[in-house]
């Protein structure tokens, strides 16, 4: 018996252990199943994607292929083909975002040629119809310093490279376009007259040289074997007494090489001589090009007049007359600083012009026009570079507002309340009747922007790098309003919703705090996010730079949250000024990105104005300068509802819920470990250090997130050559520090919370990270990561939890696994790739289960996620038909059996 | 001069050795190298334009390569170092590969292992990237089937008692079955089956006695 037990006991224990392990697996797999994933028939139901290419740098019409296209190369290092009829992207190639992807040349012949990079250069050939790569070769210039002045063009199937050495010579090299052959055969052309004001209008290199007042205009065909210099005194063309003289501007995309002198005279180079066009530029800033017209070349000009709006004119060079059909003067068309990117005219039978003109604006929008100025399509390419965005609630409908206001009015007798009730119900009845009669239909279009029942319908306000601000419908992705602010420098721009639309009769109020383009001083724009009109302070130019800005917690009598600005001189400005007295218990911090110094301020109202007092100061990462790579603060929308989490032994582990926490991720050079990444969690009010962790031989990524008591940040481990995501969680312990319901105060407690730390390997490289936010923060919290592959993945916090340990113990925790799983089902945007993700924005919906997600980058992608599944909503495949049929059948069965039962009773009674 | 010659010769020998080890060695000057390979599209993929949708990302887009018509690719101007080469396609999954280029320009390609970074499983270079599988982004919607419904234990639990309630009384009413039942019950009474409990007790007591005997024998030997 003893032998038996000895044999069996360990095995039995093993079995128990095995079962325990199995338990883990069951938990694990059930969690995998929990992860969000949509069904195939839900494609496009909750999401949309818009593809962009960025501000267009070069554009050429592809007239060779059967399907007409425009080939564009952009400032965002994208090569794309746009459909000529619709403006949609046919194919697109995204190059490196760094200087290695800079597009230097776009040439469209029967094949597309691009030159990208900046020494080393890459020459690639593409098939215009499909976009497939045809050839590719690399080119390294020996002379690195002057490489930036390189000029490229394609001529007779040869790639020509021109490298000027100002004041001495020009180096011209020709390469075989397909192979890059003929290396080293560089011809040096003496040109002591060259300077940095010279321009290239292939193949002519043109300069203005000589002393003031007696300048000479020189042009050289750099590709011809014989050196032929055309030189003429500049005074032949312009009056040197009146102007400074000698400013050259090339005619881009022109069929005849030519240039503009002093923004006035247009000169063409034909038959080895200059030819003055009989018409001067109509406006100094006009953009001009020469296209092939019905009879000879046509000079086309476009500019934006302050009064008359967009202007387009054309002048036939050969007949010396205006072309009447190519003309437009439209004050409604707002294209700031219009310039012609490309133009093409086809000859018609009746000698009329049918032109397509691609016009670019300073607001990055690109428009394709017909000769008469009719817009065929427009693309808002500013949206390829969104720097900040905000979800804004829509106002409730008028009837709902009336009902709400009815309950707001507390005073008054019972009878007045009763009469109000009757009145509002009467208006409701009227609306119903109107809708039934179909009279309400025309109103619908204007009133469509009202809040829906679950508050899923919102407006997204997008601020772009170009200074253009958009209001977008989140359900359809349609642009509702747009506003171009040329004075706004959007570097480190901040957006605040100062009043939501739920306080009728007051309108919603949104404020954008940025810098002024010219001065770098503070620039504040306030607008109504529903309509896009300026409100309140409108455009406000400050005369100082802003250090930090914040919103007041308390709203004033008009439900408006005041804007608090701390400027360079450490003085405080409050807008509106009437709210100055409301400043109380307000603390700010200012972190210097380059030195790693953080300064805390306390703002106090002294009866007259608000003063900022320096309270604490911290040098992050120890002594010596350190660089702050990322910071993370709690979202303004987040509300924490649960004080702790239940453990397996039914006790509660209380969270350290400090709303004032800020996480700084600091990178610092180290003599022994190369680089050390330190993450520091500070209390921004008291300056107290709450938690920290450091990683040796690592480089920090500018990604950090914080919500509730959780932190996560990313770094690249140089030692293991992999990306790791580190998480921190703060806990008070098994006992609560504060009584339930007592507000947290950073000054009240000097106890330090327990810090749990963990790190995981992430087998992908993210470029954006954020937490999901829900209305009451009761649903699970997921981390959304935008990856370089173009996928946006949803990572449940359960995987990232800092308390995941090797041993079991807590059934709610997964056992530690070093590498995080990235299942394909967790991809929010399935196969709709979002190129170059720059930001992920989340906002709560009215439904607790749902969080709205906007992904910005080169493309825009919107969807909604339900981290704990939609527990408060019927499934969208809920079978209403089946349930109706079953119900109807049951009712029928009930009544029929009743009838049969009564008949049977009758028969029985007769027996 | 003589020493220099030796140096040159030895250098030549070394480069020759490297060539023998790895014939595909290419340097474009300035310490910049080219990562080459070929992508094999999955068979079931629509052959139109897969080259445009597929991108080569080196170190998460630090260097980007494009695919030619025949599936070959080259990522130019890469300095020495260790790189993860990924093939990015919206619908198909390719396994990433780590390519290491040392300071002498020698290439080594191996499988990516983020957990055990020292483990090396070499793969051939130039890279040959084959599509592993189609990425499944979507959940399969459950469909209503009659068999699922019928074999649901709840349904069976409901239907079987219903059958018993409805059918058994009818059978009882039938006179023939009544007689049959009577006969069965009589049979049961007549035959004297040993009771189960008794059977078990006898079985176990017998077994136990034998075991005891064995135990005694063991003791005696000791």
3D structure, described in words:
The complex is a heterodimer of chains A (911) and B (222). Chain A has six helices and 60 strands. Chain A is globular, with a radius of gyration of 34 Å. The model of chain A is unreliable at 1-10, 25-35 and 440-447 (pLDDT under 50). Helix content of chain A is 12%, strand content 44%. Chain A is mainly beta. Chain B is an alpha+beta fold and 222 residues long. Helix content of chain B is 41%, strand content 24%. In chain B, a hairpin with a 4-residue loop joins strand 2 and strand 3 (63-65). In chain B, the strands form two sheets. A six-stranded antiparallel beta sheet of chain B has the order 3-2-5-7-8-9. Chain B is elongated. Chain B has helices at 2-21, 50-53, 146-150, 153-173, 175-190, 196-221, and strands at 33-40, 55-58, 63-65, 72-78, 81-88, 92-94, 97-101, 107-111, 122-123, 127-134. Chain A binds chain B through residues 37-41, 91, 93-98, 100-101, 117, 120, 122, 124, 130-134, 136, 138, 140, 720-722, 761, 763-765, 787-790, 818-819, 824-825, 827, 830-833, 836, 877, and chain B through 28-30, 32, 34, 48-49, 51-52, 55, 57, 59-64, 66-69, 74, 76-77, 82, 86, 88, 90-91, 93, 112, 114-115, 117, 135-141.
